[in-house]
């Protein structure tokens, strides 16, 4: 049992030391397309909420990205300048512009029910897959 635990720990250590070349091509392309001026600081793999694995990526401009194992983005966090507008569904952008005109979207997460966003005032909002407002959460 101890050998198994040690092997698992060694595997996790190797996985957390991965670099951009080891990201799935879809994730690498996403970074290149949406964050062309940023450079990679760190990439690690960890267990996600569904007992699968995900990539956590940090860029030098303060952006944090989470990707699933196939390279699909699951979360974008960017506290300095906000999430790039082209990543936010149009309906969500319009809702925030109308109801929170002075706030920026600092975090965008894909969730089973649709999307969850965090605003610059720490408000958290939920939207369905089509971007229609569901609720504000604490």
Total helical elements:
3
Number of strands: 8
Largest sheet: 8 strands, antiparallel
Order of helices and strands: HHEEEEHEEEE
Given this structure, which CATH class of the largest domain is correct? Answer: Alpha Beta
Give me the Rg, rounded: 17 Å
Strand arrangement in the largest pleated sheet: 1-2-3-4-5-6-7-8
The name of the CATH architecture of the largest domain is 3-Layer(aba) Sandwich
Q: Tell me the strand percentage band.
A: 25-35%
In terms of topology, how is this protein built?
Elements: H1 2-16, H2 25-34, E1 40-47, E2 53-59, E3 64-68, E4 73-77, H3 90-99, E5 105-111, E6 114-119, E7 124-127, E8 133-137
Antiparallel strand pairs: 1-2, 2-3, 3-4, 4-5, 5-6, 6-7, 7-8
């Amino acid at each position: 049992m101890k050998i198994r635990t040690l092997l698992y720990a060694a595997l996790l250590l190797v996985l957390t030391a991965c670099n951009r070349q080891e990201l799935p091509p879809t994730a690498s392309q996403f970074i290149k397309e949406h964050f062309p001026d940023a450079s990679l600081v760190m990439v690690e793999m960890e267990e996600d909420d569904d007992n699968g694995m995900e990539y956590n990526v940090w860029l030098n401009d303060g952006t944090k990205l989470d990707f699933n194992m196939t390279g699909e983005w699951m979360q974008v966090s960017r506290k300095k300048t906000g999430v790039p507008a082209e990543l936010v569904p149009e309906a969500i952008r319009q809702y925030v512009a109308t109801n929170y005109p002075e706030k920026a979207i600092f975090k965008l997460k894909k969730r089973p029910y649709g999307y969850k966003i965090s605003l610059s005032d720490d408000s958290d909002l939920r939207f369905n897959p089509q971007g229609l407002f569901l609720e504000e959460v604490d």
